[in-house]
Amino acid sequence: MDKDRKEGIRGMANPGRYGIERVAYWLMRITGLGLLFYFIGHIYETSSLLDGKAAWNSMLELTQTTEGHIFLTLVIGMCVFHTGNGIRLMIAQSGFGLGKPRRPDYPYTPSSLNMKNKLCIYVTIGLAALAMMYGLGVMYDV
Amino acid sequence: MTKGGLLPKGFERPTVLASPSDSGVQEKYEEVKSSSKTIVLRISKFNPEKDQRTTFLEFTVPYQRWTTVLDAILEVKNNYDHSIGVRYSCRQATCGSCGMIINGKPKLACFTKISELDSDVVTVEPMNNFPVIRDLAVGFERMISTHKRIKPYIIREDSEISSGTKEFLQTPEDVEKYIQFASCIKCGLCNSACPTMATDSTFIGPQGLAQAYRYIADNRDQGKDERLKIIDERHGIWGCHFAGSCSQVCPKGVDPAMGIQMLRGYLLGYRK
User: Any stretches that span the bilayer, and where are they (chain A) (predicted)?
Assistant: First the structure.
């Protein structure tokens, strides 16, 4: 780090210093990794079907514990956030919803980091939280 | 300016403190001096030829409402430690020399007032994602070479400097399309804030990509295909994840994130 000053993975720490867009970038990475691990775990879980009904049932029981419920709630949140933010990014990265280039006037406010984009991020986080609450409600029969 | 000159309605002429020798002015100077606050300035010290690790030197520096971080660093350099390595020139956010990490964020030292940092401790470090030359000075070789790689000039067969030709006229609307990106002062703050630059050493970076857009959006230019070919790769335009930090830290309002996404529009066929 000293000579080349490469931030590396450390650059992902403290995302709030660059605003909500960097937080969304950070969450996108974390949820992406989380979903990848879930996907691998899911393949392992469903592969237990090959070992018969008893093996499958004992695997399902794992998800009926408190830890299992917390894990599945996190999966729901990760899934909703990653999907919502992914759609926002696909639209923005195609050059839409960024505003128009204009002569910069002080104080400079970047139009690509506009309210539309910020609102989308906040709504996606909100939707993920709502989905997690709904999931908890279903799992605990509330 | 003449003393009795006319001023627009509603404006008042400010009191000018001409020189400390004027009667009463010395007192005013003393008053201002005594009312100044102090901060602890932590300066990163690292010489790649000698040191193994970065160390921080701490100095207590007085400041006023208008004191910039660069002023404070130069105060220390002039009075306490002449060996501090810092690059600066214009002191007015035009040359792009004094970019550094100030309290964790890339900023121009000459464009950042201590009073606006709202902190009793100001930590200055060299910019991230650039090799350190010494202390706060970093090497720009890689950024300049990627800047050159995207051909930062108008490409076309005819020239406005050939005899018998005229200048290429543009409407104000044509200029609006790229002028924002022409404000780049190559300070490197965007590359320093970029999370992709932090992990990918071969990424072109927001500075170079925004400059590619600047020339592609210029209707005098005919080198669009040439430039798109250069940036259309994994470590080029597709390395950007639209974290927006480059635009967040740009001191000239360039908005590289916008330029990069617009460029993608060209590559995806949404933009002609």
Answer: 23-44, 70-98, 119-140
Nearest to B252 among A19, A24, A108 (CB): A108
SS3 state at B267:
helix
Number of domains in chain B: 2
B166: pLDDT strictly greater than 80: no
ipTM of the complex: 0.89
Domain range for B233 is: 141-153+169-268
Q: Which helix (H) or strand (E) holds B151?
A: none
Q: Are B34 and B64 in contact (CB under 8 A)?
A: no
Inter-chain touch B258–A6, beta carbons under 8 Å? no
Assigned domain for B110 exists: yes
A7·B198 Cβ contact <8 A? yes
Kindly list the residues from chain A whose CB atom is less than 8 angstroms away from the CB atom of residue B130.
4-5
Tell me whether residue B20 is in a domain. no
Q: Give the residue on A whose Cα is nearest the Cα of B272.
A: A95
Give dist(CA A109, CA B104) in Å, integer: 20
The domains of chain A, with CATH numbers, are: 16-100+110-139 (1.20.1300)
Q: What is the CATH number of the domain that holds B86?
A: 3.10.20.30
Give dist(CA B207, CA B215) in Å, integer: 13
Is residue B18 a part of any domain in this protein? no
Shared-domain flag, residues B146 and B242:
yes
- Chain B hits for A116, Cβ within 8 Å: none
How far apart CA B176 and CA B171 sit, in angstroms, is 9
pLDDT tens readout for residues B220-248: 999 999 999 999 999 999 999 999 999 99
**pLDDT tens column, B247-268:** 999 999 999 999 999 999 999 9
